[in-house]
Each structure stands twice: as structure tokens, then as C-alpha cells.
Write a structure and sequence with these properties.
single chain, 323 residues, mainly beta, 4-stranded antiparallel β-sheet, 4 helices, 18 strands
């Protein structure tokens, strides 16, 4: 797989555009406006699912937690939890009872699933945008494939924003049941200073603020609630920055429910219903027959300021109106 990625890297011609995509042995790097934005980690001996890491604002400030991949001074006295939450990822913890979410390589749980790179498709650099197309298989630990994932990510050039569109199609190889649970599906783990609530070991005052499209604020109000979008903002060394996630109006079960936590987890989950409402009579599970597909699209926007000053509502309206 490494050799295939290297050959592909040689085939990608340099581009004078503002969004530059470069393929390497285990990752695909995305540069915007001459500055690194993120790396898309797609393979490696310890990789259990692909992720974008680290993720940065247009200023260059990173917004995702560095641990467990890197040790930085800011995080020395923070609580080291959920080591499977790295950067930005797409997964679910109950796919035919396999856990593709809580699946770090160091864990010993027997039901862990693994998302394995099958193919790196077309990589496009461009003046205003660039894109990455990849295919993965979701497998059990014995290598038995459950479904295929076809993913296209589009990255946009903007002097103030960092915007990523995710377009993901999951196709069942065998009969699939996505279970009703809270740990899914599009997730990002934020830098500790951006979290809403202090944890046991924190030596700093967190700055995070959660708000959704319906004006529900804080984890207590927004967790598990359906909404068109959700925003998580805070302050890093005097710089105000936020992350918004938009749920595409064409997505199944739009508006999505938000698994958004005060400790810095920020996730959109269409499969949680009884898990979020605590009503066991409701069921958010979804079944796919062999050969059938389901498509999910999201937009992630890293912006300066908070949700109001960045006009996240206006950005959402433009996204929702686009065909």
C-alpha cells in the first residue's frame, strides 16, 4: 500500500494554486495559501481509522488536541482520556456489533473494527479548492469486510476561513445494522483550552462555548438535540476561534443530533435516538441490505471569533441553499 501511495505521489503534478494536495507514504497533506492546514492519515501499522490531524485555523493556530500523537507543554497537566479521539474522523461504535469508534490499537476489546485503506483515487490541487478521493473497507479484526466507504473531501481557499466538505457513501458488503448508540459518527476532539468544562487535572480556565442553530447553549442544553448546525468556540492565547459543523439537508435523519461534550468532543450522530432521549421505545438503528448504500455529507468550518461574530447562521444558509 505504501508503494502505491508513493507512485501516486509521483503522478501528482505540482500546482500553482492556493490549495495544494500532496501524497506521502501514510498520509495526504493539505496546504492552503502556502500554509499547512492538515494531514489526512490513511494507513500505518497502528492506524485503526483514518483521521485529519492536526487541524488548523486560517491563522495557523491548531484547534485539535495533540495527545496521544504528540506531547506538548500546554497539555502536560490535562486529563488524558479517550485516546481513540484523534483529530477529525468518521466512524461508529456499533456496526454489526463492531466498534469502529472506540478502537485504538492499544485496546484489548475483542469487538473492535478497523477501517482499512483500499485505494487512493484522484487528488486535485487548485487555485480556489482541492479535493481528495479515497476508498476504505470497514473490517473486523479477522479481516472480514462489512462495508466499503467512498469518501471525497473538498478543501477551500479563504483568507479567514478553513472549510472542508465531506461526502461519504457507505455501501454494505453484507447485511449491515448501524446500532442506536451515542458514539458516532463525524467527530472532532478539540484542543483542551477550547473545551467548555474544566476536567480533574486541568490547570487552566477553559474558554469553550457550545451553541446550536436553535440557540441552545452549553452541553447541558445542546447534547443529543437535533439541529441544522452546531458551533464550538473559544480563545487560544488571545485569539478567538471556533469550529462549526453543518448537517447537509439531504442527509438521512436531518437535522442530526449532536454528541457534543464539555470535555471537547464534538460529534454529529444520525444513529443515536434512544441513546440521546433516554426513551427505549425509540430506535435510531439503520439497516442496509447487501449492495445498498447510504450517503452522508457535512461541512466543517474553522472560523475566527464565535458563532455570532463569524455569522455561522449565514454560512449555514449559503450551504443549505447550494445545490
Amino acid at each position: 500500500m505504501k508503494s502505491a501511495l508513493l507512485l501516486l505521489a509521483l503522478a501528482v503534478l505540482p500546482c500553482a494554486g492556493q490549495v495544494k494536495i500532496t501524497s506521502g507514504p501514510d498520509k495526504i497533506s493539505i496546504q492552503i495559501g502556502g500554509k499547512p492546514f492538515t494531514d489526512f492519515w490513511v494507513s500505518g501499522p497502528e492506524l485503526m481509522k483514518p483521521y485529519l490531524f492536526p487541524v488548523r485555523a486560517a491563522s495557523g493556530t491548531y484547534v485539535t488536541r495533540m495527545w496521544p500523537l504528540e506531547n506538548v507543554a500546554e497539555e502536560e497537566n490535562t486529563q488524558k482520556d479517550h485516546r481513540h479521539q484523534i483529530g477529525l474522523w468518521f466512524a461508529h461504535d456499533d456496526v454489526n456489533k463492531l466498534d469502529f469508534w472506540n478502537n485504538d490499537a492499544s485496546y484489548k476489546t475483542p469487538n473492535r473494527g478497523k477501517i482499512v485503506l483500499q485505494k487512493v483515487g484522484e487528488l486535485k490541487s487548485g487555485r480556489n479548492q482541492g479535493s481528495v478521493a479515497v476508498t476504505f473497507e470497514w473490517r473486523d479484526l479477522q479481516g472480514d469486510p462489512q462495508l466499503t466507504e467512498s469518501r471525497v473531501m473538498t478543501f477551500y481557499d479563504d483568507p479567514k476561513l478553513r472549510t472542508v466538505d465531506l461526502d461519504i457513501t457507505l455501501t454494505a458488503i453484507k447485511g449491515i445494522v448501524f446500532g442506536d448508540s451515542k458514539d458516532g459518527v463525524l467527530g472532532i476532539r478539540l484542543r483542551p483550552i477550547l473545551q467548555e468544562q474544566a476536567q480533574r487535572m486541568d490547570k487552566f480556565q477553559p474558554t469553550g462555548h457550545i451553541v446550536n442553530a436553535d440557540g441552545q447553549e452549553t452541553e447541558k442544553a445542546a447534547w443529543g438535540k437535533p439541529s441544522n448546525w452546531c458551533d464550538y468556540s473559544g480563545e487560544i492565547n488571545g485569539e478567538k476561534v471556533g469550529i462549526a459543523i453543518f448537517d447537509n439537508p439531504a442527509n438521512p435523519r436531518h437535522p442530526v443530533r449532536w454528541h457534543v461534550r464539555g470535555y471537547g468532543l464534538f460529534a454529529a450522530n444520525p444513529f443515536g435516538l434512544s441513546a440521546f432521549t433516554n426513551d427505549k421505545s425509540q430506535n435510531g438503528a439503520m439497516t442496509l441490505e447487501p449492495g445498498r448504500s447510504v450517503r452522508f455529507r457535512y461541512r466543517i468550518v474553522i472560523h475566527p471569533g464565535d458563532g455570532k461574530t463569524a455569522d455561522v447562521a449565514g454560512l449555514w444558509n449559503k450551504y443549505a441553499a447550494a445545490k
